[in-house]
Design goal:
By secondary structure, the protein is α+β, with helices and mostly antiparallel strands. The protein has 3 domains: 113 residues, Ferric Hydroxamate Uptake Protein, Chain A, domain 1 (Beta Complex); 42 residues, no CATH class; 47 residues, no CATH class. The chain is built from 6 helices and 10 strands; from the N terminus they run βααβββββαββαααββ. The protein has a 5-stranded mixed β-sheet with strand order 1-6-7-4-5. Strands 8-9-10 form a 3-stranded antiparallel β-sheet, with no helix packed on it. Helix 4 runs antiparallel to helix 5. The longest helix is centred in the last third of the chain and has 14 residues. It is elongated and about 80 Å long.
Length: 223
């Protein structure tokens, strides 16, 4: 699939890559943008956060080719500009990436950073068909920072103040009582990372695809 139409592979001179929808569906990630990394040559994806709802990836096609705020590729889903984060992988019929100026010329300056063309599935004549897919996975941070205890923290602050010519901020008695656990409420030493988080986080997805003769449209639902 190319801009505003289709061509045979033998007649295409631009740099165009395609991804089979099954490849995007096999990934356990919530967003399609997280599934692009490592799938296509020339596509760079960076996931900047693991926070639920804000864990989508920023991605570029052959780097940044324009200056200013808009350096992301143009995404067209069924010919309409939309976000890849608002579509389920099960809805995709074809997925094409236009990389160079030859392939993106019809889009002008909007295609300076590459173009992604997505065609969604269409209904077909025949008996009703239901396709249900469910998966569940566990996520775990690859690494976490190791924090010092309260007593070590207070000692470090006192040493820093001494090098700056300032008086100690914490008394030796307070540091000692914190170290031995004299009064956990008054001299607290809590590892909040361990107290409020769990080692693993579960994530699941349920999608249903319905096709019927009466309703030729494709209806998909994801949870």
């Amino acid at each position: 699939m190319v801009g505003y139409g289709t061509q045979r592979k033998a007649s295409v001179i631009g740099a165009i890559s395609t991804i089979k929808p099954e490849v995007l569906q096999s990934n356990q990630t919530r967003s399609i943008t997280n599934s692009l990394a490592g799938q296509v040559a020339g596509v760079i994806a960076v996931q900047r956060s693991g926070e639920p709802g804000y864990d989508n990836s920023d991605f570029w096609i052959r780097g940044m080719n324009s200056f200013g705020a808009n350096t992301t590729p143009l995404v067209l889903i069924d010919g309409i500009e939309r976000s890849l984060d608002n579509i389920s992988p099960e809805e995709i019929e074809s997925f094409s990436i236009l990389k160079d100026a030859t392939a993106t010329a019809v889009y002008g300056v909007r295609g300076a950073n590459g173009v992604i063309l997505v065609q969604t599935k269409r209904g077909k004549q025949g008996k009703p068909r239901f396709t249900v897919k469910a998966d569940y996975g566990l996520s775990q941070p690859t690494t976490l920072p190791e924090f010092v205890g309260s007593a070590k923290y207070m000692e470090t602050i006192n040493i820093a103040n001494a090098y700056s010519g300032l008086s100690p901020l914490f008394s030796e008695e307070r540091i000692h009582r914190t170290r031995i656990g004299y009064d956990p409420d008054l001299y607290a030493d809590v590892d909040w990372m361990d107290a409020v988080t769990t080692p693993f986080s579960g994530n699941g997805r349920l999608s249903m695809d319905v096709k019927s003769k009466r309703c030729p449209g494709n209806h998909s639902a994801g949870v």
